[in-house]
Design brief:
It is a single chain. With 135 residues, this protein is α+β, with helices and mostly antiparallel strands. The chain has one domain (2-133): Alpha-Beta Plaits (2-Layer Sandwich). The protein is 46% helix and 32% strand. It contains 4 helices and 5 strands. It has helices at residues 17-33, 55-66, 100-116, 118-133; strands at 2-11, 37-43, 46-54, 71-82, 90-94. A 5-stranded mixed β-sheet has the order 4-1-3-2-5, sandwiched between helices. It is globular, with a radius of gyration of 14 Å. Bound molecules: flavin mononucleotide (FMN).
C-alpha cells in the first residue's frame, strides 16, 4: 500500500543556511535508500515537503518529522493512499527545482492530485508556485 503525505512548516530560527543544506543532503540520501520518493523545498524560512512510499514507512517517518525541533508549526496539507508514486526519486532542493525532469514530475503529481483530490489540489498548487517563485 502506497501513502503520500504533504505539509508545510517553519524552520527553527537558529538554523543557518549550511544547517539547511546539510538537512536537505541528509534527507535526499536517506530517502533514496529507503525508496521514499517526493520533494523537499526550503524557501524564506519555510519548508514544503511531499513524501511518497510504503504506508507504514511514510507514517513512521512523518511522526519523527513532526517532533523534529529543527522546525515547528507543521501544517499537514494531505495524507492519503495512492495507487503508485509519481516521483521517480527523492529530490531536495534549496529554494527551487533546478532540473526540468523534477519540474515535470511535480507537474504530473499535481495533475493526479487535481483529478483524485480536487479539494487539496488548490492549496498544493498555490504552495508549489510560491516556493518556486521565491528562488
Ligand atoms: C523539514 C524536515 C524534513 C525532514 N524530512 C525527512 C525525510 O524526508 N526523511 C528522513 O529520513 N528524515 C527527514 N527529516 C529528519 C527527521 O525529522 C529525523 O531527524 C530523522 O529521520 C531521524 O533519523 P534517525 O531515525 O536515523 O535518527 C526531516 C526533518 C525536517 C526538519
Amino acid at each position: 500500500m502506497w501513502q503520500t503525505i504533504s505539509y508545510v512548516s517553519t524552520a527553527n530560527r537558529l538554523l543557518t543556511n549550511s544547517d539547511i543544506d546539510e538537512l536537505l543532503d541528509f534527507v535526499k540520501v536517506k530517502n533514496n535508500n529507503l525508496h521514499i520518493t517526493g520533494i523537499l523545498m526550503y524557501s524564506d524560512g519555510n519548508f514544503f515537503q511531499i513524501l511518497e512510499g510504503e504506508k507504514t514507512i511514510i507514517k513512521e517517518l512523518f511522526k519523527k518529522i513532526l517532533h523534529d525541533p529543527k522546525h515547528y508549526d507543521v501544517i499537514k496539507i494531505f495524507d492519503h493512499e495512492m495507487e503508485k508514486p509519481s516521483f521517480s526519486k527523492y529530490n531536495s532542493n534549496f529554494s527551487t527545482i533546478n532540473r526540468r525532469s523534477e519540474h515535470l514530475e511535480l507537474q504530473q503529481f499535481l495533475e493526479k492530485e487535481k483529478s483524485n483530490n480536487p479539494e487539496t489540489f488548490k492549496s498544493i498548487s498555490y504552495l508549489t508556485n510560491k516556493f518556486m517563485q521565491l528562488s
